[in-house]
């Protein structure tokens, strides 16, 4: 069996031996193309080379390209899992000629590779060629002849097909041309070429396309526009790696090859089910999960995280489909990230970004699943249990507003609702959904639901015409510039009068377009009598800087020349904060470990924020260590250096950051103290410029993601000053010195705790009623005078005194002797109160003296009131009882 890895490399080596340059895969996230969301074919990164807009130092290239087909002209999403061949993500092997060789060599190379390297059986192969069609081009008789000449095949193996089959276009616009395809037959026995065209069986038996050779001759510049000839006839071929692996590995389905089967198996293991390779729903679900895990891993590795617009939404759509299939399989816990992890095991060597971001991919995938699972069950119930539209015998259609509610409230992408609807035997009112969505968009203009496509087109057109904005702001804060375009509400305008607001694109500018977390700049544009405030600067399309402006005086005209100058203070603060963010990232990795991966950041003129992957909050010591490390680096005051170098050199130096592979690109490597990071932002000159660095907060943002907010320079100082101000206020309230505030608060809190306990105890005592609080029933009569002795535990001297007086008044004429152990239990307290009219016979001082003697103490007082203490509380009862003996004795 030949592994996919071997096929990939033997393909590239073969074409290298034919003079081709092996070019690494470009990102699937298209960099410079408004017409495509994702790279959908091997030729996409070479689009401008075909049209002659870009020149490279080679005319022959070969690549293994990451591709996504889930929207637009080439969309395979609906079929994923339900056929043996469809994927949202796949790898395409290709060879390309840019005005170099043409049909003969292309066909000869393909055949040589098939025969000598893959050793494919010619009797299982047919070739298709373009039969010619109005609006395209004439019949490709040359290719038909070449196949016969070069392969020696029978004429019936060359089959003519129409434009739908054999005229290839990248999208609605772009390079295109007639193509010729090699189709292969999988199954038992030798196939009859006349059976070509019959549908393959769902399990993969039958004819399927293996390799497409496109003869690029035209460019369609406008949608439905005419085909214009390319500068030179060229070649673009594409062969799905997964398909050729099927043939080489002797299996029927793409899902059984070495790149996919282990992911399917992982889904099976987690669900506790066995994968049977059939068209049963469980098997379909496992295949969908495997495919979608590949797509999600690749997109996350390129910095796309699930969200609500564009690519972010596409990723969410696919991830949620997979998660729901897992739910269908009965998987109760988040599992999708475990499947993504398997993807990395299988493809990490070919696409190192996957390996570098392993932890991040797991975190993001898991986070998305945790979020979606919160609403998944509720959403499914809403779908299934709604009887309004699910009545027997009626057209079963889910109303658009319910589909929209599922989208808004439960996070169900529309296509997911449709998939489930189909399974349950009903349809979804799509126009109704669109209407509800449009209404919501109107209600929240400018919110996440607004798509910016129209606006983008204006900017793409400007870029197409004038090229990228020259950014001068690494060095300059001021420059002359020319106004290339003025835009209001997504449309170009000629001028902006006083008080008008809009956007301006200049040929060059010191203003930085918001990117990589660094916010835009502020400043002013001046021309003639006009003064224009710049409120912010954005990057609506890669390389094009747009200034958000308000004309405060005069008129700004398209084509005008002007002077553009930055708000120095704001930019300096941004520089400080940006450099500090790098140091913070570095310090976190030092303190927590290399598992810390950046998940986002915001660098503005007044704050900085850094989000990173971590499962636990920082401890107090870690926080301190991070803050110390950054401040130490600041104090070293080393020069901050920027170097432009190749991606490989940057990687070799150990730089971290998001690596966007783009042909011929030099990357900017920022060295700040010990931090080495790729970055396009603006930075301080020396670490000392940052000034004081202080962490404002550390918090959890989402599952597996923590956020640190921090301040630098004078902002850090004013934060600390604010904290100090609060401390001083607290000290004043407590009437203490600031450094004793804590001690005082501790004491106050302790006193409060004691009081609470005491209140609790008293309440209990009051509730239990009787004895302790009102012992008056125990009083005995001695010749008309009530004599009472009682112990009241837990009562202090003051309360004891009050109770004695109360009881005396209540029982008057009376003699009351009360005792209690002191709170610490070490002493006995005694109090005696005698009604005035009884003092002739009974004297408080005498009574207390006798009783105190019993508890090992002494004391005395007036005839009507006396108190004393003793050292032996255990004798309290005896001492109290003595009052009766005394009364008896007095007669
Ligand atoms: N662009 C063609 C395809 O994608 C050949 O590479 O099929």
Describe what this molecule looks like in 3D.
The structure is a single chain. The protein is of the alpha+beta class. The protein is 38% helix and 25% strand. It is built from 24 helices and 35 strands. Strands 1, 2, 3, 4, 5, 6, 7, 8 and 9 form a 9-stranded mixed β-sheet that branches. β4, α4 (141-151) and β5 form a beta-alpha-beta unit. α3 packs parallel to α4 and α8 (281-301) crosses α10. The longest helix has 28 residues, at 741-768. Residues 444-452 have low confidence and may be disordered.
Summarize the structure.
The protein contains 24 helices and 35 strands. It has 891 residues and is of the alpha+beta class. Residues 444-452 have low confidence and may be disordered.
Helix and strand arrangement:
Elements: H1 4-17, E1 21-22, H2 47-51, E2 60-68, E3 89-97, H3 103-118, E4 125-130, H4 141-151, E5 158-161, H5 163-166, E6 167-169, E7 174-186, E8 206-220, E9 227-240, H6 241-249, H7 261-271, H8 281-301, H9 310-328, H10 336-347, H11 352-356, H12 358-384, E10 397-398, H13 400-410, H14 414-424, E11 427-428, H15 430-443, H16 453-466, E12 470-471, E13 478-488, E14 491-493, E15 495-496, E16 501-506, E17 508-509, E18 523-527, E19 530-541, E20 544-553, E21 556-557, E22 561-566, H17 568-591, E23 598-603, E24 608-613, H18 620-636, E25 641-646, H19 647-652, E26 666-672, E27 675-678, E28 693-702, E29 705-712, H20 713-734, H21 741-768, E30 780-782, E31 785-791, H22 797-811, E32 814-821, E33 828-834, H23 844-854, E34 857-861, E35 865-870, H24 876-890
The structure holds serine (SER).
């Amino acid at each position: 069996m030949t592994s996919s890895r071997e096929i990939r490399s033997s393909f590239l080596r073969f074409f290298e031996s034919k003079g081709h340059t092996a070019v690494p895969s470009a990102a699937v996230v298209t960099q410079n193309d408004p017409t495509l969301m994702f790279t959908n074919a091997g030729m996409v990164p070479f689009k401008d080379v075909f049209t002659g807009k870009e020149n490279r130092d080679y005319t022959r290239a070969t690549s293994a390209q990451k591709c996504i087909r889930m929207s637009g002209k080439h969309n395979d999403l609906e079929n994923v899992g339900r056929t043996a061949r469809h994927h949202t993500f796949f790898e395409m092997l290709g060879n390309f000629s840019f005005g170099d060789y043409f049909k003969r060599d292309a066909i000869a190379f393909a055949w040589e590779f098939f025969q000598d390297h893959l050793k494919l059986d010619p009797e299982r192969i047919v070739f298709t060629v373009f039969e010619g069609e109005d609006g395209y081009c004439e019949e490709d008789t040359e290719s038909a002849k070449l196949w016969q000449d070069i392969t020696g095949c029978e004429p019936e193996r060359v089959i003519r097909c129409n434009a739908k089959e054999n005229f290839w276009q990248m999208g609605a616009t772009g390079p295109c041309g007639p193509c010729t395809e090699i189709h292969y037959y999988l199954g038992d026995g030798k196939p009859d070429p006349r059976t070509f065209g019959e549908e393959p069986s769902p399990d993969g038996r039958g004819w399927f396309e293996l390799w497409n050779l496109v003869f690029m001759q035209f460019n369609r510049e406008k949608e439905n526009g005419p085909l214009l000839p390319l500068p030179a006839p060229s070649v673009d071929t594409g062969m799905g790696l997964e398909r050729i692996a099927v043939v080489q590995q002797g299996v029927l389905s793409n899902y059984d090859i070495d790149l996919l089967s282990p992911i399917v198996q992982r889904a099976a293991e987690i669900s506790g089910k066995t994968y049977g390779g059939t068209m049963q729903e469980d098997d379909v679900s496992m295949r969908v999960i495997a495919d979608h895990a590949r797509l999600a891993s690749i997109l996350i590795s390129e910095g796309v995280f699930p969200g609500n617009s564009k690519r972010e939404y596409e990723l969410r759509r696919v991830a949620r489909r997979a998660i729901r299939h897992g739910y269908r399989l009965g998987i109760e816990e988040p599992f999708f990230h475990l499947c993504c992890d398997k993807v990395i095991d299988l493809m990490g060597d070919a696409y190192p970004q996957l390996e570098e971001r392993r932890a991040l991919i797991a975190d993001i995938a898991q986070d998305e699943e945790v979020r979606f699972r919160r609403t998944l069950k509720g959403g499914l119930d809403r779908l299934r249990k709604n009887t309004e539209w699910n009545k027997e015998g009626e057209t079963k259609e889910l109303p658009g507003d319910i589909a929209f509610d599922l989208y808004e409230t439960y996070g169900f992408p529309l296509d997911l609702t449709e998939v489930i609807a189909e399974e349950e035997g009903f349809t979804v009112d799509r126009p109704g959904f669109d209407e509800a969505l449009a209404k919501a968009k109107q209600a929240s203009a400018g919110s996440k639901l607004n798509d910016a496509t129209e606006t983008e087109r204006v900017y793409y057109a400007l870029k197409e015409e004038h090229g990228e904005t020259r950014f001068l702001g690494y060095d300059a804060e001021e420059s002359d510039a020319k106004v290339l375009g003025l835009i209001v509400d997504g449309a170009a305008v000629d001028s902006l009068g006083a008080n008008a607001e809009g956007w301006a694109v200049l040929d060059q500018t010191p203003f930085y377009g918001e990117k990589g977390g660094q916010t835009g700049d502020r400043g002013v544009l001046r021309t003639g009598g006009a003064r224009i405030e710049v409120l912010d600067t954005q990057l609506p399309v890669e390389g094009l800087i747009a200034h958000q402006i308000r004309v405060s005086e005069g008129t700004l005209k398209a084509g005008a020349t002007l002077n553009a100058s930055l708000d120095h203070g704001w930019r300096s603060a941004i520089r400080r904060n940006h450099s500090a963010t790098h140091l913070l990232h570095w310090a976190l990795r030092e303190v927590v470990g290399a598992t810390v991966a950046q998940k986002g950041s915001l660098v503005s003129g007044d704050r900085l924020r850094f989000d990173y992957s971590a499962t636990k909050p920082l401890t107090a010591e870690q926080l301190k260590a991070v803050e110390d490390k950054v401040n130490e680096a600041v104090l070293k005051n080393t020069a901050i250096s920027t170097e432009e170098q190749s991606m490989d050199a940057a990687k070799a130096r150990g730089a971290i950051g998001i690596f966007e592979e783009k042909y011929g690109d030099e990357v900017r490597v920022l060295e700040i103290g010990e931090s080495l990071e790729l970055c396009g932002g603006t930075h301080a000159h020396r670490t000392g410029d940052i000034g004081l660095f202080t962490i404002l907060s550390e918090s959890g943002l989402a599952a597996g993601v923590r956020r640190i907010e921090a301040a630098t320079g004078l902002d850090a100082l004013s934060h600390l000053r604010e904290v100090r101000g609060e401390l001083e206020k607290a000290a004043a309230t407590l009437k203490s010195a600031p450094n004793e505030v804590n001690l005082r608060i501790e004491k106050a809190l302790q006193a409060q705790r004691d009081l609470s306990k005491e209140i609790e105890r008293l309440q209990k005592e009051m509730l239990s009623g009787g004895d302790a609080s009102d012992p008056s029933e125990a009083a005995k009569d001695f010749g008309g005078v009530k004599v009472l002795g009682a112990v009241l535990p837990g009562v202090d001297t003051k309360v004891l005194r009050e109770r004695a007086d109360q009881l005396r008044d209540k029982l008057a004429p009376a003699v009351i002797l009360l005792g209690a152990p002191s709170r610490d239990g070490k002493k006995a307290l005694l109090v005696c109160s005698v009604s005035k009219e009884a003092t002739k016979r009974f004297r408080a001082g005498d009574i207390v003296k006798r009783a105190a003697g019993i508890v090992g103490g002494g004391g005395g007082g007036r005839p009507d009131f006396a108190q004393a203490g003793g050292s032996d509380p255990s004798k309290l009862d005896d001492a109290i009882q003595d009052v009766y003996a005394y009364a008896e004795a007095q007669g």
